[in-house]
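#struct-pred
JK: can someone run the complex with nicotinamide-adenine-dinucleotide? inputs below
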Amino acid sequence: MPGAGDLPERYARILEDAGLDPSKDAFHGATDGEAWFGSGEPLEVTTPIDGAPLATVHQASKEDYERVVKATQDAFRAWRDTPAPERGDAVRAFGEALRENKRALGRLITLEMGKIVEEGEGEVQEAIDIADFSVGLSRQLYGKTMQSERHHHRMYEQWKPLGPIGIITAFNLPCAVWAWNSCIAAVCGDTMVWKPSEATPLTSIAMSKLANDVLQDHGHHGVMTLAVGDERIGQTIANDSRLPLVSATGSTRMGYAVGEAVAQRMGRSILELGGNNGVIVTPSADLDLAERAITFGAVGTAGQRCTTIRRLFAHEDIADEITDRLIATYEQVPIGNPLEEDTLMGPLISQDAVDEMMDAKRHIEKQGGRILTGGERLPELGANYCQPTIAEVTHDVPIVQDETFAPLLYVIRYEDLDEAIKWHNDVPQGLSSAIFTQNVLEAERFLGPNGSDCGIANVNIGTSGAEIGGAFGGEKETGGGREAGSDSWKQYMRRQTVTINYSDKMPLAQGIDFSVD
Ligand code: NAD
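RT: done, structure tokens with the ligand placed:
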């Protein structure tokens, strides 16, 4: 446990700026929206930048979890009865607080999970954007009216708050994923308990403090609560029938466990799981655009985005050129401390993650693939650093079926677009996809019914960096969930169909006659 004096000055300042007192020996990892507590096991938080210990967090015990869920239940009764635009006003104020603290929170994200500052701040911007979106949404929770088949009857549907919900998040988006869920859920009238990744509890504490200060100013507590813990708390949430919805983001392994547990109790889940995203580059593509997008998409966040580009399908005619360009660019990527302005790639989240990448490299070579650039650890920078890597493989090697959560890009050559699309779809995951082409016929084939089978399909844009306005999520083993924009909000509400009879008769639907006399 770092004592007050042990924390490097630079790191202490980042914690302080984000509202976390660095002189504290430990932080509480649970809140009911008002008080902070945590009597569970201590969690030592380190930075992936250099392994320095940052803080100790006391996780939520079983009793703490009960206290938190009870608070969400109590708060739900008042929150669901608060007019939605008033709920939106609290979310607006939260968005303002995020704006004021964007830089501080962005740097905390960098310190805790290792993405570069630009991307850390970008993640906070995403939270601000979804807050703005939610404010507008709070006046647009529209229901439809329908035409009744019965005389003097009126039918319509209305959307009601669902209840307290559970939100489980992954390490790689420690702020934005919770915001996608929490801001929308809040305007929909739900209260919530958040279980963040055990790798990023400090960001969740800082975010929860901000949110709850704002909510308390608006006269509410217990709307946004927190229970830091490991997967056991996640399992408790999945099995907790007081939470009618569980939104879970993370690996497919986690999704199978959570999805099954929630379904067993007839709950609803939003599953946002692993991706294995592909880009097709056709002979007509603007290779400058493709190269820039692929570099950002494959190397950004050190390859640790669910939407990271993992497979590049390059047409034979341009395969050498695009590969050579990428190799040249990869070899110039500034790798190092993500807090430094010039760095474009920081560390992976852990040494295990680097080990997994090295395992993947061995599999590639065993399966007949070839490393074109990278593939080495960078111990001089620290245990969690490695080179961004490009490997050439054929479409049918088993390793391309897996999501290796690291900056590892497979190049696969193709001759025929339909074949490339077929190979592209031939993996268990279905999150994001893209084509680079200047030929409208090729673009439309990729978007058409025989095209990409993913939740996201882009033309002349990479697979990552989605805007919040669209519904975000993927098919197949990516889980089928949709979050953020469009009409994703409907999942956070209960749809009620209402029929009102304002006649003095009792006609039955389908014309059924059930008269006793
Ligand atoms: P992870 O599955 O290890 O953990 C994610 C969260 O689930 C953590 O909070 C963890 O404690 C919890 N958890 C793990 N096992 C659980 C279980 N059995 N029951 C309940 N909770 C459990 O994932 P990670 O390493 O933190 O994140 C990386 C993964 O997340 C990648 O696969 C990535 O693609 C995916 N991801 C997907 C999206 C998306 O929107 N599709 C977004 C971000 C990350």
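RT: quick notes.
The chain is about 35% helix and 20% strand.
Residues 63-273+479-495 form a domain with the Aldehyde Dehydrogenase; Chain A, domain 1 fold (CATH 3.40.605.10).
JK: thanks, will look after standup
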